[in-house]
Amino acid sequence: MTKLKLGPLADDKPVKVTVEIPASLHRDLTAYADALGRANGQTIADPLKLIVPMLQRFIATDRAFAKTRTRSKTQPDVAGAERSG
Length: 85
Prior knowledge:
Blueprint: H1 23-40, H2 51-60, H3 63-74, H4 78-84
């Protein structure tokens, strides 16, 4: 079986969020939830619970975003330095 990018879902306190997604994306999430459930031996009753771990995984593995974050942390606040000078 192909290794999926997501692993088992953490049992975490739910937070309610309202978002509209296309029906095709909902079908894909449902199919992914089924595949993930089979791969990890768990039942995923609500495929929308995949959205947060998918977004977290996406952000964590986006190299360009990581470089941007690293760059912004290492560069001094030039505007702030000019104001205080």
